[in-house]
Amino acid sequence: MFRKISAASAAIALLSATSAQAAETKQCMPAETAESLITYILPGALGAVRTKCANTLPASAALLQVDSEQMQRYETASQEAWPEASAAIGLIAGQDLPENIEMDAMRPFVDAMIPTMLAQEVKSKDCATIDKVYGLLEPMPVANLASLTVMLAQLGSNDDKEGRKDPFNICKAPSE
């Protein structure tokens, strides 16, 4: 289940649908850049999950509390993360973006695409577990949550899954 959550976070591979060829040629994304992308999409991702789970969870569920202090922290961090997150989007989309595109012009597209992609991934039977994880993560600073998500994605990634590259190619953590 947690793998699904980190996969959903990495459905941050947001633009993966746009590029099979870019996935083959693009460079890996530095962990810090991936963390900015996670931070940026977190409110949209939670909104998608909230929508999907609204009929499954009780009204008191932590995930359904839209105006919580936790969500306000996520929203603030998201806005601050946009400049570096846009660089991550450029890396993911790679050659599929026009050469002179202004990333701020892509922002509404990215904001609309994330909830759509995530809503397809979340199953109603997983809502209670997602709500529990969300509640457990509440005291965690946003930066730590993004870092943890990237670390889990790095641990769960495989350079070559049945002949295809991961669309969300995070650079491997250096070995000590």
Give a short summary of the structure.
Helix content is 61%, strand content 0%. The chain has 176 residues and is mainly α.
Q: Topology, please?
A:
Layout lengths: L1 H8 L10 H6 L5 H23 L15 H25 L9 H19 L5 H11 L4 H15 L20
Helix pairs in contact: 1-7, 3-4, 3-5, 3-7
Main attributes?
176 residues, mainly alpha, 0% strand
Word description of this protein:
By secondary structure, the chain is mainly α. 61% of the residues lie in helices and 0% in strands. The chain has 7 helices and no strands. The protein has helices spanning 2-9, 20-25, 31-53, 69-93, 103-121, 127-137, 142-156. The protein is globular, with a radius of gyration of 16 Å. The two termini are 29 Å apart.
Low-confidence stretches: 1-25
The topology string of helices and strands comes to HHHHHHH
Number of helices: 7
Strand content: under 5%
Rg for CA atoms: 16 Å
Largest sheet: none
**Overall geometry:** globular
| Terminal-residue CA separation | 29 Å
Structural class: mainly alpha
Average predicted local confidence, pLDDT: 78
Instruction: Please report the total strand number as a whole number.
Output: 0
Oligomer: single chain
Residue share in helix: 55-70%
